[in-house]
Amino acid sequence: MPEADTTKKAKQYHENTPQETPGFFLKGAGQLDWGMKNRLSRIFNPETGKTVMLAIDHGYFQGPTTGLERIDLNIVPLMPYADAIMLTRGILRTVVPSTLNKPIVMRSSGGPSILKELSNEHLTVDIEDAIRMNVAAITLQVFVGGEYESRSIRNMTRLVDMGLRYGIPTLAVTAVGKEMVRDAKYFRLACRMCAELGAQMVKTYYVPEGFETITASCPVPIVMAGGKKLPELEALTMAYNAIQGGASGVDMGRNIFQSDAPRAMITAVRKVVHENMKPKDALDLFYALKNKKDL
Ligand code: R5P
């Protein structure tokens, strides 16, 4: 049994030396099969290497979340502005037009509601159904440090194995409990575990201290999770800092669909992610678009 990493020697993350990406534009993906690379190229823009994913899967454990009460009315019109959509199969089949030409990242775990222990999840979608829905990726929560940590890891490795069979990449989402510390040390652990155990992408939270050590020590692309609604400038700044800190994109929900002007907000986020626009300039763009009222 190896000992825990207790050495006093300082860790070397080499944050300023990006991992090489031979054969493909995304880190860690150069040796994947054609189908997997093709799906990843639909999610991440090959020209910028980044993605703006819109997360609208909240209902799978918390019901009709504010802003998602009527996805047909409020969210479907937003979808053309996103690079990829993260959602459940129930919403996909009931309200999303099959003419939508956007890559789908399919929520494939669930079980407990907000009334119960959230880490007690199972897989909720068969790979055959994911294929039937023509998804670009499959995704689930991983609860490192949670009560059902081991089960959620097992869920992930099963999903990864199923995805590998058919060339569908898995996005592992590092879930955090209310009482858990959200710091770089924790997210380094969680993200690295997900990558080591096979996830081709990891979604994790931004932390102001040491975010670049999380991205540097994770050999696959990291997308930043949005989290609770913040004032627009704070959300844009967080996205900007995450991208500058090595994230390959964002997967934002509430900070987009709970904004007063969701289309203006996602357009501003796109500028930050794909064009490195500074947060203040992106905020000015947000207000300009919001005032035009057509966004
Ligand atoms: C993670 O718990 C789920 O995928 C959420 O539905 C999603 O990550 C939430 O997005 P946001 O925190 O940006 O609203």
Specify Rg, calculated over alpha carbons: 18 Å
The secondary-structure class comes to alpha/beta
List all distinct small molecules, including ions and cofactors, that are bound in this structure: ribose-5-phosphate
- Helical proportion, percent range: 25-40%
The first-to-last residue Cα distance is 57 Å
Task: Count helical runs.
Answer: 12
Strand order of the largest sheet: 1-2-3-6-7-8-9-10
SS elements, strand count = 10
Oligomer: single chain
Report the major sheet: 8 strands, parallel, barrel
Question: How would the global form be characterised?
Answer: globular
Summarize the helix and strand pattern as letters.
Answer: HEHHEHEEEHEHEHEHEHEHHH
Can you walk through the features of this model?
The protein has 295 residues and is an alpha/beta fold. The protein has helices spanning 34-43, 59-62, 71-74, 89-95, 127-132, 149-166, 184-196, 211-216, 232-244, 254-257, 262-275, 279-292; strands spanning 51-55, 84-87, 104-107, 109-110, 122-123, 137-142, 170-174, 201-204, 222-225, 249-252. The strands form two sheets. The protein has an eight-stranded parallel barrel with strand order 1-2-3-6-7-8-9-10, surrounded by six helices. Strands 4-5 form a two-stranded antiparallel ribbon. Helix 9 (232-244) runs parallel beside helix 11, helix 9 packs across helix 12 and helix 11 runs antiparallel to helix 12. The longest helix has 18 residues, at 149-166. Bound molecules: ribose-5-phosphate. Ribose-5-phosphate binds next to helix 10.
